Amino acid sequence: NAGVTQTPKFRILKIGQSMTLQCAQDMNHNYMYWYRQDPGMGLKLIYYSVGAGITDKGEVPNGYNVSRSTTEDFPLRLELAAPSQTSVYFCASSYSPLDGEKLFFGSGTQLSVL
Amino acid sequence: GQNIDQPTEMTATEGAIVQINCTYQTSGFNGLFWYQQHAGEAPTFLSYNVLDGLEEKGRFSSFLSRSKGYSYLLLKELQMKDSASYLCAPRTDSWGKLQFGAGTQVVVTP
């Protein structure tokens, strides 16, 4: 079982460039999340989804977009990269956090915007 | 958004006990997660509390008081490998949104 797969693991972007962080899970989880983590800080929720076709903003959505066309995939799009988006990005999924089901995390994507 | 408070850092010696407190807004509360995160790694699940009281899992225990908006994670018989950040995540949204506290960095010294 692959679990939650994030690609790429590392990326360097120039200011103003765009990119998509990929996230896929093979556990048939309805709930998926994108978090960012700045050095020495906690996780900040960017966007989340409770099922295919349904997404909502988290704490820090500005500068990002998401889509959820399938249950398996939840890509995160950065349109105009800025240095403030330098961070580690984690994707996570859960069967149902409403029932106490834990989140499964991907291994993270380290993004630097220079 | 959710206001989640945890101490920034705690230091303890090997074999000791450390208690990490977490306070949160009680409105809409439906349960609380604790996660452990080692440097450079993804968080891993430790515990979930939805009812008042203490849940024990080996060396780690988690306590919840719903009326007080308070939880703690108790780490006993500390080992060097317990040096990590501990994240509190109260669930206060019936739609699945889950936010984390800033984390408490625990440093275990010999």
What descriptors fit this protein?
heterodimer; A: 114 residues; mainly beta; seven-stranded mixed beta sheet; four-stranded antiparallel beta sheet; globular; B: 110 residues; 48% strand
What's the structural blueprint in terms of helices and strands?
The complex is a heterodimer of chains A (114) and B (110).
Chain A: E1 4-7, E2 10-13, E3 19-25, E4 31-37, E5 43-51, E6 54-57, E7 64-66, E8 76-78, E9 87-94, E10 104-105, E11 109-113
Parallel strand pairs in A: 2-11
Antiparallel strand pairs in A: 1-3, 3-8, 4-5, 4-9, 5-6, 7-8, 9-10, 9-11
Chain B: E1 9-13, E2 18-23, E3 32-37, E4 44-49, E5 53-57, E6 60-65, E7 70-75, E8 84-90, E9 104-109
Q: Give the low-confidence spans of chain A.
A: none
Order of helices and strands of chain A: EEEEEEEEEEE
Tally of alpha and pi helices of chain A: 0
Portion of residues in beta strands of chain B equals over 45%
Bulk shape of chain A: globular
Supply Rg of chain A. 13 Å
How many angstroms does the end-to-end distance of chain A come to? Answer: 36 Å
Class inferred from helices and paired strands of chain A: mainly beta
User: How many beta-strand segments of chain B?
Assistant: 9
**Average pLDDT level of chain A:** 93
- Determine the fraction of residues in helical runs of chain B and give it as a percent range: under 10%
Distance, first to last CA of chain B: 39 Å
Q: Which structural class is indicated by helix and strand composition of chain B? A: mainly beta
Order of helices and strands of chain B: EEEEEEEEE
Would you report the number of β strands of chain A? 11
Give a short account of the largest sheet of chain A: 7 strands, mixed
What is the chains' assembly state? heterodimer
The coarse silhouette of chain B is: globular
Major sheet summary line of chain B: 5 strands, mixed
